[in-house]
Design a protein that fits this description.
CATH class of the largest domain in chain B: Mainly Alpha
Number of strands of chain A: 12
Strand order of the largest sheet of chain A: 2-1-3-4-5-11
CATH architecture of the largest domain in chain A: 3-Layer(aba) Sandwich
Largest interface: A-B, 69 and 81 residues
Strand content of chain A: 15-25%
Oligomer: heterodimer
Largest sheet of chain B: 4 strands, parallel
CATH topology of the largest domain in chain A: Rossmann fold
Distance between the termini of chain A: 44 Å
Structural class of chain B: alpha/beta
Helix content of chain A: 40-55%
Order of helices and strands of chain B: HEHEHEHEHEEHHHHHEEHHHHHHH
CATH architecture of the largest domain in chain B: Orthogonal Bundle
Order of helices and strands of chain A: HHHEHEHEHEEHEHEHEHEHEHEEH
Strand order of the largest sheet of chain B: 3-2-4-5
Number of strands of chain B: 8
Strand content of chain B: 5-15%
């Protein structure tokens, strides 16, 4: 339907052949893509726009991480049930890019904005612009901690509670004998600080009433939250403490890095690993016995809760500024029954 | 006959110089048609319109609730509607400027006082709130909203200014990159220099200028320090390239890592947000309704255009890029010129970093990631040749805008983020292809 206008434009401008080629490539690409991606954009585009209750814009931290894809998918389906459309964009961890996306949302006049801030502070001015345009802003998973912008509600995993669960699992595993434990941290992330805080709380409580079976935290190393850095950090930890009994890693990739390091030095059976997250790779490793257990996050619940809060906000309810979704422990028995790991 | 040939060649010349402008205009027209949709007015005139609609439909004995958000335009909408309704003799029960929860409180109060709401003055946004449906006696079908009009999202003034504002930083850095590329070089360090400048200036202001209470002099000095550090890094690049003959690609790749590492070291990997309001003026304010970064960009491009097309400096840069040896033999001070070009490129990257941290209200070592590629893409799409000797400053500006318009247009038409990358890659490829085809002719 846009073809005629294009053809007209092209014939109007008398240009050399290569320009025409370039233009054609460009326009076909852009027009083609925009058509396939517009939500249900078919013959009756306009009627549809009139029917919806509104559009919610979601700028994810990155869609390369399946965690945010799950949040996005669940938000999309929950919003559709309520008669809303969703626009999904990815900030790619670049705060300027995300700020630009928020500006685009404002131009489009979305009803609400959801984001995972690419920077916990620098996204502030963009949130403020959305506030000034009267668009409510919600965050999930990652928090905005600045003061110029106003966020209605933040929805995230209860990381401290998850850390306590990891601590309890550790106590259950080592409680009889005690032993040395290393933590693979990622201190830059607030969420990981909370996880370690909760973990230490339980270990300290255990040690307060234990005598010979104390659990000693011998090292707290930066595992970067990624596989290769977790590998290197775990290698150093086992080098310095040959009698290490367990490792608590703040996410699945660094836990798997640690597992690889332990296998490399032949100590995979001696050292128990507890991870965090419950990503697909983590769940598979739990099923295969490579990781003992994970406090798992529920990105699906985060996505659905976000939508629930948005709907509540629009129907005039007062909503909490922070909503935490409890984590649950996931062991091998859970993995064996998990339908998502079948096949 | 001769005359016609001459005019033909002028047109050809213009097309080969600024043919990209046509591409930009066509893209603009494309996105304007793709983003045409109903727009919903708010503000004073929309408020008066709704008031008159209610008066016509429901007459004088009507009791009305006015609902708008707490924004400047919406307050004007509510004020105008209330004034007009009172002039028409219609009773306004309450005016809400806020969120759905405030509406709920207002309606509860009204219904508790046994008052009947006959109509609700709303705009498109507040009419969509589901709060009215919780009251059986109200319901959202009582909302009266202003008549929509048809206009493309892309051509909204706020969007066009937004696109210009979003491009300004890339475009400013791209000036220096154009000079470097015209001289047949490349500078991969600009992205890291953005981060370095942002960290250095924010640190100076925080540690020596007094942080959030810093005076304007300290802010200017801090920014100058950030730009100076980046200019020095550029000079260092130039030195390595001219004195030791290391390829620009390698030198600037090293500088990319060094500058990024420095930025992380100096800031301990954290963002620095203890900055005074005056620091935010450059990136966050407007002058005559146009964002300041856009003014800065326009001024810099005008200066750069004169330097590159009317001054000896520019002619030397083109000569070096065309044939370095020939330039040297004809007396061009090649080494000095290259040092100057890389210094300018570094300084402009630093300036870009200052504008970015001013826009985002923080200094941060994570800023500027992959900007070198954005900037090189703008220069190449703008028609400069990576082989050197060719490229126009204003071509680069157009190139930067083509990329920005495509990105903005794709966001406005809901193109999937993964497809966006494919499109941008294809655009870059098409631009280089075009350069090759022109070269062959």
């Amino acid at each position: 339907m846009h073809g005629e206008i294009l053809a007209e434009k092209i014939s109007e401008v008398n240009m050399s052949h290569s320009f025409c080629h370039m233009l054609l490539i460009l326009t076909i690409f852009v027009a083609g893509c925009s058509k396939t991606a517009s939500p249900g954009g078919d013959s009756q585009g306009k009627d549809q726009a009139a029917e919806t209750r509104g559009v919610v814009g979601y700028s994810a931290l990155t869609l390369a991480n399946p965690f945010f894809k799950v949040i996005a998918d669940n938000m999309q389906s929950a919003l559709a049930e309520q008669g809303y459309d969703m626009i999904l964009v990815s900030g790619e961890r670049d705060v300027k890019k995300q700020a630009d996306q928020i500006d685009d949302f404002i131009v489009k006049g979305v009803s609400a904005i959801v984001l995972n801030p690419c920077d916990s502070q620098s996204i502030g001015p963009a949130i403020k612009r959305a506030n000034e345009a009267g668009i409510p802003v919600f965050t999930n998973d990652l928090r905005y901690i600045g003061s110029d912008g106003k966020v209605v509600t933040h929805i995230a995993t209860d990381n401290e509670q998850g850390g306590r669960l990891a601590g309890q699992a550790m106590v259950a595993e080592l409680g009889e004998s005690g032993g040395k434990v290393a933590i693979l941290h990622f201190p830059q992330a607030e969420s990981c600080q909370l996880r370690v805080m909760g973990f230490r709380e339980i270990i300290d409580a255990h040690n307060a009433k234990a005598d010979s079976d104390k659990i000693e935290i011998v090292a707290e190393l930066d595992g970067g939250g990624v596989r290769d850095e977790g590998f290197a950090a775990a290698k150093d930890a086992i080098e310095a403490n040959p009698d290490l009994a367990a490792i608590f890693a703040i996410n699945d990739p660094s836990a798997l890095g640690a597992r690889a390091a332990l296998e490399g030095v032949g100590k995979a059976d001696q050292v128990t690993i507890i991870g965090f997250d419950g990503q697909q790779i983590g769940k598979e490793a739990i099923r295969d016995g490579k990781i003992l257990c994970d406090p798992v996050q529920f990105p699906d619940r985060i996505g659905r809760m976000t939508v629930e809060i948005i709907i509540k906000h629009f129907s005039g309810d007062k909503v909490e500024p922070i909503i935490l979704i409890p984590s649950e422990l996931y062991y091998k028995v859970d993995a064996l029954q998990d339908p998502s790991l079948k096949g | 006959m001769e005359n016609r040939n001459a005019s033909g060649s002028v047109v050809n010349q213009f097309l080969s110089d600024y043919g990209m402008l046509a591409v930009l205009l066509v893209l603009g027209a494309l996105f304007a048609t793709l983003t045409i949709k109903e727009q919903h007015p708010t503000g004073a005139s929309a408020g008066r319109q709704v008031a008159q609609m209610i008066a016509q439909r429901q007459g004088e004995n009507t009791q009305v609730l006015i609902v708008a958000r707490d924004t400047r335009e919406d307050r004007a909408f509510a004020r105008a509607a209330a004034k007009e309704l009172q002039a028409l003799g219609i009773r306004v029960l309450a005016v809400v400027n806020g969120v759905p929860n405030d509406v709920r409180a207002a309606i509860e109060k009204i219904t508790a006082g046994r008052q009947q709401i006959d109509a609700i003055v709303a705009n498109d946004v507040t009419a969509k709130w589901s709060v009215y449906d919780r009251f059986p006696s109200v319901g959202s079908d009582k909302c009266v909203k202003p008549r929509p009009y048809i206009w493309p999202d892309f051509l909204k003034m706020s969007n066009l200014l937004g696109v210009a504002n979003q491009t300004a930083i890339y475009a400013i850095i791209a000036i220096g990159m154009t000079m470097v590329i015209v001289s047949a070089g490349i500078d991969l360090s600009v992205g890291s220099l953005v981060a370095l400048a942002s960290v250095v200036s924010a640190l100076c202001i925080r540690d020596w200028g007094g942080g959030a209470d810093a005076g304007i002099t300290m802010v200017v000095l801090g920014c100058a320090a950030g730009i100076a550090v980046c200019a020095a890094a550029g000079t260092f690049n130039g030195l390595m390239i001219t004195v030791f003959g290391i390829p620009p690609f390698i030198v600037s790749l090293s500088m990319m890592m060094i500058a990024s590492g420095l930025a992380f070291r100096l800031s301990d990997g954290r963002s620095i947000s203890e900055l005074p309001p005056s620091f935010l003026w450059l990136g966050g304010s407007q002058t005559l309704g146009v964002p300041n970064p856009v003014w800065l960009m326009l001024v810099l491009y005008s200066v750069a255009h004169i330097v590159m097309s009317r001054m000896v400096f520019g002619r030397y840069v083109y000569a070096i890029g065309g044939n370095k040896e020939a330039a040297r033999l004809s007396g061009v001070p090649v080494k000095r010129m290259l040092m100057a070009v890389y210094t300018i490129c570094g300084a402009l990257a630093g300036l870009g970093g200052i504008v970015l941290s001013s826009q985002l209200a923080a200094g941060d070592p994570k800023f500027g990631l992959m900007y070198e590629l954005e900037v090189i893409a703008a220069v190449v799409v703008g028609g400069a040749s990576l082989m050197g000797g060719r490229g126009k400053v204003f071509g680069t500006l157009i190139g930067a805008f083509i990329i920005a318009v495509i990105k903005n247009g794709m966001n406005l038409t809901n193109v999937d983020p993964f497809n966006q990358r494919i499109v941008l890659g294809a655009v870059l490829l098409a631009a280089v292809l075009l350069d090759m085809l022109r070269r062959r002719r």
